[in-house]
Write a structure and sequence with these properties.
The chain is of the alpha/beta class and 399 residues long. It has 15 helices and 8 strands. The strands form 2 sheets. Strands 2-3-4-1-5 form a 5-stranded parallel sheet, with helices on both faces. A 3-stranded antiparallel sheet has the order 6-8-7. Helix 13 crosses helix 14. It binds adenosine-5'-diphosphate and magnesium ion.
Length: 399
């Protein structure tokens, strides 16, 4: 008898990492113009001149991080080969949730000589961190490109973007040269900067548009070839993932995720090939996941009201009026051992919120001879998703 895993043989995946978030493609497709713009912004680096500052804009998943990495790797290779070029140092930093102090501190730590103690977390100021940063830059000399990814999440972007580009002009550094590359998902980021910063930056601006289905198909084909075994995917599955992502978001990340999830589903079903249907199922699964997150974000009583409507939907008693929903809500609350809200008004408020958030449908009905009107509600989603999430949260509570 074999062991537990002995029947696991070939899988659809040849190299699954190629479809994972950290994978860096060695070839950038469908971004020739943007790569050219980047290239011309950094030409000066090869001749020991000051680098330009660059701001990159574009929605999530359109290749900002991947293209930046590719271009700077190429620049690094070229400067390493050319004797006339100064040494190039690239510092990458993701600013998500950072303050200027923690961003500069991380940059400093990346520059300190091996074996030296890292810059303290507490007790020193942002100005101290900057001073240390500058002295490390001058110790090394050469050209330094500081990539601030997701810079729209940096709390004090204004100050950092005012400081760094002017470091040389202000005699903070002498031997080194510095260029800043800011990457933002948000097109309005620049307008949020102060006039003084906008003026000081003098940056080149590169914007990335979303991908269309054809571009996504090219990117996906390239990935699929590397990630999946031969004959384990159909061209139409690739086309479908590209079409869905093209329509939804124009994001290569979404397209790649759909392909990976579709392949996982095919593999989980012991099927030899990724087909259109698997991509469809992958998309459903993602949508469901998002819906679950949205339900989880609701307050307890909003969830109980939602569950009541789902329960009525389940037994075919929707659309329903708030009074009927309230009765079911009491039963749901009792089942979950929660103290119910007592006024009809509070239930109506939750129903109205749930309608606004897109969980429910609402219809206005007239009261007939008496005049006046009332609302009827219906569930605008699969009730099973509601039950699943509510059961799960209930179990978590019980622990
Ligand atoms: N032009 C492209 N060619 C190949 N892969 C790409 C391209 N654009 C994006 N990708 C891939 O899509 C995913 C998302 O790209 P990323 O650069 O992280 O997007 P962003 O930084 O704009 O949110 C990554 O896996 C990346 O490798
Ligand atoms: Mg990115």
């Amino acid at each position: 008898m074999g062991g537990l895993f002995s029947d696991v043989t070939d899988t659809i995946f040849l190299d699954k990492e190629v479809l994972e978030e950290e994978y860096q493609p060695d070839e950038i497709l469908e971004r020739e113009e943007e790569v050219e713009e980047y290239k011309s912004a950094f030409k000066d680096v090869l001749f020991g001149r000051n680098p330009s500052n660059v701001m990159l804009y574009g929605k999530a998943g359109v290749g900002k991080t991947a293209v930046t990495r590719y271009v700077l790797d190429e620049l690094q290779t070229e400067t390493d080969q050319r004797e006339a070029a100064d040494d190039l140092y690239v510092h990458r930093h993701n600013c998500n949730g950072d303050t200027m102090f923690s961003a500069v501190r991380t940059l400093v730590n990346g520059l300190l000589p091996k074996g030296s103690a890292s810059f303290p977390k507490k007790g020193l100021s942002t100005a101290d961190a900057l001073e240390e940063f500058y002295s490390q830059l001058d110790r090394l000399g050469g050209t330094h490109l500081v990539v601030l990814d997701e810079i729209d999440h940096l709390q004090d972007a204004n100050e950092l973007l005012y400081e760094l580009p002017r470091a040389r002009a202000n005699d903070h550094i002498e031997a080194a040269r510095i260029g800043v590359i800011g990457i933002s998902n948000n097109y309005t980021f620049r307008q949020r900067l102060s006039a003084k910063v906008q003026d000081a930056l003098k940056e080149e601006e590169i914007s990335f548009s979303t991908y269309d289905a054809n571009e996504l198909r090219a990117i996906l084909h390239d990935r699929a070839e590397k990630a999946l075994s031969d004959d384990s995917y159909s061209n139409s599955a690739i086309a479908k993932a590209a079409a869905v992502a093209g329509r939804d978001t124009g994001s290569a990340r979404q397209a790649i995720d759909l392909l990976r999830k579709g392949a996982e589903i095919a593999e989980g079903n012991d099927e030899p090939m990724v087909e259109d249907d698997h991509i469809g199922l992958a998309r459903e699964a993602v949508k469901r996941g998002r819906l679950q997150d949205k339900i989880e974000d609701q307050s307890l009583h909003a969830r109980l009201v939602l569950e009541a409507v789902a329960q009525l939907d389940h037994v075919g008693e929707t659309p329903a009026r708030s009074k009927e929903i309230m009765q079911m809500y009491r039963r749901v609350a009792a089942k979950r051992a929660e103290e119910p809200l007592t006024t009809l008004k509070s239930i109506q408020n939750h129903l109205s919120d749930l309608y606004m958030l897109g969980f429910l449908l609402r219809r206005e009905e007239n009261e007939g001879r008496k005049g006046g009107s009332y609302h009827e509600y219906d569930l605008d989603m699969d009730p099973d998703v509601v039950f699943e999430v509510c059961d799960e949260l209930d179990e978590e509570d019980a622990v």
